[in-house]
Automatic annotation (TrEMBL):
Coiled coil: none annotated. The keyword Membrane applies. Keywords: Cell membrane, Membrane, Transmembrane, Transmembrane helix. It comes from Mycolicibacterium aurum (Mycobacterium aurum). The keyword Transmembrane helix applies. This is Putative monovalent cation/H+ antiporter subunit C. GO terms for cellular component: plasma membrane. Residues 112-124 have a biased composition (Basic and acidic residues). The gene is mrpC. It is a multi-pass membrane protein. PANTHER family: ANTIPORTER SUBUNIT MNHC2-RELATED.
Amino acid sequence: MTTYLFPLILIGGLTTAGVYLLLERSMIRMLLGLLLISNAINLLILRTGGSPGNPPVRGRTSGSATTTADPLAQGLILTAIVITMGVAAFVLALTYRSYRLNTIEEVSNDPEDTRVSKRSGKESIEEDEDHLDPDFSRDTDLPDELDALPGYEGSR
């Protein structure tokens, strides 16, 4: 059996580029590296499958071939392609989810935050002193979660 040098160099180049991309920190580059390594392995399986020959169907011939082709290599490659596409879809879903979680989304201005940020320091000190006053009464229009605590008298 003769081994051709070009397919082996191509397999080595794809594997090298795939490992380089796989070691990057970007998820997309890692996915591309995984795909390159997968294609290199598929080419390696195809090369080790043997020389081409007759189809593996009884009574069928192809040209002047005298041997029957091995269908196992082709079946393994088809299975590997399906698995690789599933893994690629999963990594893309992880990448999209990571992107959505790490991007800053636009948050509108809250009117209460705007009012507090415009308040002067003197006004805030006066309001803080009001909270220390025992006769200070709170707004009791809405139920307060602190009313349910033991030992808390609620608003006066």
